[in-house]
């Protein structure tokens, strides 16, 4: 691994039969940075995350994550990374504390240090008054908070978040944003975030990659991408790049 680089890929590709999900991805993500991965549904974002988190073998190409090879050291990658998938599962008959104790056990954590970590995370997320209630009684936003806590519980070097704010209200989304920014700054944790929320990406991510039909078409800071596309908002830049621009005059032509 190059000094300071947490993710390095060279011509990383994945095919599912005749379907090309990811094609020749060349990417470097620096340690302690917040990287945003944008693209339409089916662009290959989740496939990328599954390969980089050690869940899926690539068809061709190479990559290292935290210094470990995605072909031969996938278990090591799983130990030092955290993953919050887009559609995660929860054990609804457990309380928040019980669920996080279970996640801790899976990561060889136990005892007083684990419980201090659980109490701290639940406090930060505003769940300390409900920590012993069953998860089936939680709202979707509260469940997402518990899932965020479970993802960072073992203090991973690198965290993959797939649509982390998809089920959160605006206040909770802001809280998740602040947690990401604080962790990246204070602990050198690297974040790789898949999101459709361009405003969230613009606020949080230092570097953004835009994937379209399995190909990384754009890479740069939010400001660089807006400059390249001649736009003033990341949403407009994104729509221009992926071919989803909206002609508002045409859209409202029925009123004329």
Terminal Cα separation, in Å?
60 Å
What is the CATH level 1 assignment? Alpha Beta
Q: Beta-strand percentage?
A: 15-25%
Structural class: alpha/beta
Q: At CATH's second level, what is the architecture?
A: 3-Layer(aba) Sandwich
| Helix/strand order, N-terminal first | EEEHEEHEHHHEHEHEEHHH
The number of distinct β-strands equals 10
Q: What's the rounded overall pLDDT mean?
A: 89
Radius of gyration: 19 Å
Pick out the low-confidence regions. none
Detailed description of the structure:
Strand 1 and strand 2 form a beta hairpin. The chain has a single domain (5-255), classed as Rossmann fold (3-Layer(aba) Sandwich). The longest helix has 18 residues, at 170-187. The chain is built from ten helices and ten strands. The N and C termini lie far apart (60 Å). Helix 3 crosses helix 4 (111-124) and helix 8 packs across helix 9. With 256 residues, the protein is α/β, with parallel strands linked by helices. It has a six-stranded mixed β-sheet with strand order 6-7-8-3-9-10, with helices on both faces. The protein has a four-stranded antiparallel β-sheet with strand order 2-1-4-5, with helices on one face. The model has no long low-confidence stretch (mean pLDDT 89). 39% of the residues lie in helices and 25% in strands.
């Amino acid at each position: 691994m190059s000094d300071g680089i947490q993710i390095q890929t060279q011509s990383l590709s994945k095919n599912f039969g005749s379907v090309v999900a990811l094609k020749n991805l060349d990417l470097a993500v620096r340690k302690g940075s917040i990287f945003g991965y944008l693209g339409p549904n089916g662009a290959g974002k989740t496939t990328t995350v599954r390969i980089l988190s050690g869940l899926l073998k690539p068809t061709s190409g190479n990559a290292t994550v935290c210094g470990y090879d995605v072909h031969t050291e996938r278990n090591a990658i799983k130990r030092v990374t955290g993953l919050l998938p887009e559609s995660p599962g929860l054990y609804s008959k457990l309380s928040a504390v019980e669920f996080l104790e279970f996640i801790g056990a899976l990561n060889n954590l136990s005892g007083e240090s684990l419980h201090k970590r659980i109490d701290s995370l639940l406090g930060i997320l505003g769940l300390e008054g409900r920590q012993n209630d069953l998860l089936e009684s939680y709202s979707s936003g509260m469940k997402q908070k518990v899932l965020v806590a479970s993802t960072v519980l073992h203090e991973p070097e690198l965290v993959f978040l797939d649509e982390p704010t998809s089920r959160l209200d605006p206040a909770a989304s802001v809280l998740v944003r602040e947690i990401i920014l604080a962790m990246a700054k204070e602990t050198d944790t690297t974040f790789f975030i898949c999101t459709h929320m361009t405003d969230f990406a613009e606020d949080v991510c230092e570097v953004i990659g835009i994937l379209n039909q399995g190909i990384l078409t754009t890479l740069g800071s939010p400001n660089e991408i807006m400059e390249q596309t001649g736009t003033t908002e990341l949403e407009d830049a994104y729509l221009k790049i992926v071919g989803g621009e909206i002609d508002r005059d045409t859209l409202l032509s029925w009123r004329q």
